Amino acid sequence: MAHYFLPPRRGPVASRAYHVRGGEATGLVVGSYRAPGQRMAAAAAGGGQEGAEVGEEPPPPPLGEKPRRGAAAQTISDDATSNLGWVYLAASSDWLQALGKLPLLQVLHLNDAFLPATNLNSISHVNFTALTVLDLKNNELNSCLPNWIWRMHYLSYLDLSSCQLSGSVPDKIGNLTSLKLLQLRNNHLTGEVPPAMRRLCSLNYIDLSMNSLSGDTAETKNLFRCMKMLHFLDVSNNNISGSVSGWLEDLTGVAYLDISMNLFSGQVPENIGKLPNITYLDLSSNTFEGVLSEIHFYSVSSVLPDCWQRVSRLQSIDFSRNKFHGQIPSTMVPITSLALLSLRENSLSGNLPTSCQSCDGLVILDLGHNSLSGGIPTWMGDGLQSLLVLSLRSNQFSGEIPEQLFQLHALHLLDIASSNLSGPIPLSLGSLAAMHSYQKGFSNMLPNFQRSNSLQFMMVHFHRWPYT
C-alpha cells in the first residue's frame, strides 16, 4: 500500500493520508484525524477553556533527549498535582502502591511513562479519592478497568487511552457524575456501551473509538439526552449496531461526530440536519442505505438551505462505504467552510450538482466508485483551486477531459480511472507536475509532458483515449 501524505494545512485535513493499493485508490484515512479533538480534550476538564491547566498534557522530551528516569516511590511527591508524563518508570513495579500513599493527590499525569504491565485491581482500595484528573494513556498496562476508579466521585478527566485494557465497561461508570472527559480509545474493551452512562450529564468529550464494543442502539436509546454540553463524540471502529435515530436527536451541541467503521444500518435520520454546531461528520464504513435528500441538510443552521453556506462551520463530511443511492443533494455541498467531502463507494447517480462550485475551500474531493454520469464539469477547474486530492474513478462519466481541470495547480493526486471518458489527453496536462501510473507501459502512451510543480500521482487507465 502506498501512502501519499498531503502537506500541512490549517483546518481539518492536516496530516491526512491517501492510500493506494495495487493501482487503486482505496480511500481517505479519516479516522486518524484528531486535530480539533486534541484541542477539545485540553479544554474538556477546564470548563471549556482551551489550555486549561487540568487538561494540558505534559510535553514530550526534546528530540534526541531520553525520557527522565525515576522510581515511583521517589518521584511521586505528596502534592496536590503530580505531572510525571514522559518520566521513564519501566522498572517501577510499585507505582500503584506508591500512589496509594497520597490521599491529597488531585491531578495525576502518568502518560507515556513506560509503566510496566500492572494488574490495576491488585489493590482493592486507594486513598487518592480526591483525584479530579487521572491520565495514564500510552502505557501498556495489560489490565482490565480497576474497580477503585468507580469510587472517585470528584473525577472530571479520565484518560486511559492506549493502555492495552481488556474486559467490559461496567455500569458502575455511572457513579462518575463529575466526569467531563472520558477517553478509552485504542484498547481491547468488549461488551456493550453501558446504559448507565446516561447519568454522566457533565460529559462534554467522549472517545471510545478503536475497541470492540458492541450492542444495539435500541438498548442505549436516549444515552446522551442529559449531556447538554457534549461537543465531541467518537465511537468509531467498534461493532455497535442498530439505527442512529435514537442517538442523534440528543446531540444538538456536538461539533465532532465520528461513528464510522461500525455496524450501523437503516436510513440516516432527517434530523441529522439539526446539528447546528457540527464541524466534522463521519458516517463512513457502515451499512446505511436510502437516499440522501435535501431535507437531510435543510435545517443544519436552523435557517433556509441557501443560508447554510454562510452560516455552517462544517469542515468535513465523510459518508463513504455505505449504501446510499440517488443523486447528490444540491443543498449538501454549497458549504464554503467544507474542506473534505467523501461520498466514495456508494450507489449515487446523476450529474454533479453545480452547487459544488461554491465549495471553493475543498482540499479533498472523493466521489469514486459510484454511478455518477454526465461530463466532468468545467467549473471544477475554475472554482476548486484549493484541491489537493480529486478522485472521480469508477463512475459513468463520459466525454472528454475538460482543459479547465488542469488549472488546478495545487493538485497532488488525480484519479479519473475506470470511467467512460474518451478523446485525446489534453496537452495542458503538462502544466501539472510529476506523473506516475500503476499500469505498466502506460507512460509510453503519454505525450512528452514537461515536468511541473505539484501533481504527484495520477491514474487515468482503463479509458478509451486515442493517442496521436
TrEMBL record:
InterPro entries found in the cross-reference section: Leu-rich_rpt (IPR001611), Leu-rich_rpt_typical-subtyp (IPR003591), LRR_dom_sf (IPR032675)
Mode of membrane association: Single-pass type I membrane protein
Region described as Disordered: 40-75
Protein name: Uncharacterized protein
Family per record: Belongs to the RLP family.
Pfam family, one: LRR_1
GO cellular component terms given for this protein: plasma membrane
PANTHER family linked to this entry: LRR RECEPTOR-LIKE SERINE_THREONINE-PROTEIN KINASE FLS2, UNNAMED PRODUCT
SMART domains: LRR_TYP
Statement: the UniProt record of this protein carries the keyword Hydrolase: no
Alphabetical UniProt keywords: Cell membrane, Glycoprotein, Leucine-rich repeat, Membrane, Receptor, Repeat, Signal, Transmembrane, Transmembrane helix
Record-linked Gene3D superfamilies: Ribonuclease Inhibitor
Subcellular location: Cell membrane
